[in-house]
């Protein structure tokens, strides 16, 4: 009887362990991790990073920035990927788009601009389009008193992002 109970517990433990492994995400991400790069099976050689230029005024923007990042990334990968990248051609480039998000989540139209071009119009157009089509975003946090925030998003095409440490001033 004792052996049968031990076998039953062993089977339950193995089953629970197998179930836990199935439910666990393949690549767990820290809750505080800021999305920095992303490659998908469809587009394995792309990445992006998002930086907030505005003073955060003591407000925690992590969740908000994560939402903006994933909205733009979804727009980029889903609808705005350049045809050469879609075809798997080795076109390389990096560009940076700057934009303002107003309190209501809309992008200030005249603020969307390319501040560092890839020198390839196909890539620059795709990056600008990804941001434009991802808007509007959620409302800015209520405790934030400024009328907008300024963000910069860098897009990498067929190249690895090099995250440089900022020089102290």
Describe this structure in words.
The chain has helices at residues 2-23, 62-79, 83-86, 121-134; strands at 46-52, 93-102, 113-116, 148-157. The chain has 169 residues and is an alpha+beta fold. It has one domain (34-157): Fusion Protein Consisting Of Minor Coat Protein, Glycine Rich Linker, Tola, And A His Tag, Chain: A, Domain 2. The chain has a 4-stranded antiparallel beta sheet, covered by helices on one side. α2 packs across α4.
Spatial strand sequence of the major β-sheet? 1-4-2-3
Task: Please describe the biggest sheet, giving its number of strands, its sense, and whether it closes into a barrel.
Answer: 4 strands, antiparallel
Cα radius of gyration in angstroms: 22 Å
N-to-C SSE series? HEHHEEHE
In helices, the fraction of residues equals: 25-40%
Please tell me the overall pLDDT. Answer: 78
| Beta-strand residue percentage | 15-25%
- Overall number of strands: 4
SSE order and pairing:
Elements: H1 2-23, E1 46-52, H2 62-79, H3 83-86, E2 93-102, E3 113-116, H4 121-134, E4 148-157
Antiparallel strand pairs: 1-4, 2-3, 2-4
Helix pairs in contact: 2-4
Core attributes:
4 strands; 4-stranded antiparallel sheet; elongated; alpha+beta; 169 residues; 4 helices; disordered N terminus; disordered C terminus; Fusion Protein Consisting Of Minor Coat Protein, Glycine Rich Linker, Tola, And A His Tag, Chain: A, Domain 2
């Amino acid at each position: 009887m004792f052996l049968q109970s031990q076998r039953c517990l062993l089977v339950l433990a193995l089953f629970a362990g197998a179930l836990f492994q199935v439910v666990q995400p393949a690549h767990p991400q820290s809750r505080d991790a800021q999305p920095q790069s992303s490659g998908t099976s469809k587009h394995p050689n792309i990445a992006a990073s998002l930086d907030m230029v505005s003073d955060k005024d003591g407000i925690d923007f992590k969740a908000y920035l994560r939402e903006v990042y994933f909205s733009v990334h979804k727009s980029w990968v889903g609808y705005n990927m350049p045809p050469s990248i879609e075809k798997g051609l080795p076109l390389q480039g990096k560009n940076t788009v700057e934009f303002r998000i107003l309190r209501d989540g809309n992008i200030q139209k005249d603020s969307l601009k390319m501040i560092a071009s890839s020198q390839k119009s196909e890539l620059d157009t795709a990056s600008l389009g990804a941001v434009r089509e991802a808007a509007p975003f959620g409302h800015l946090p209520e405790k934030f008193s400024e009328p907008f925030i300024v963000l910069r998003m860098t897009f990498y095409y067929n190249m690895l992002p090099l995250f440089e440490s900022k020089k102290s001033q």
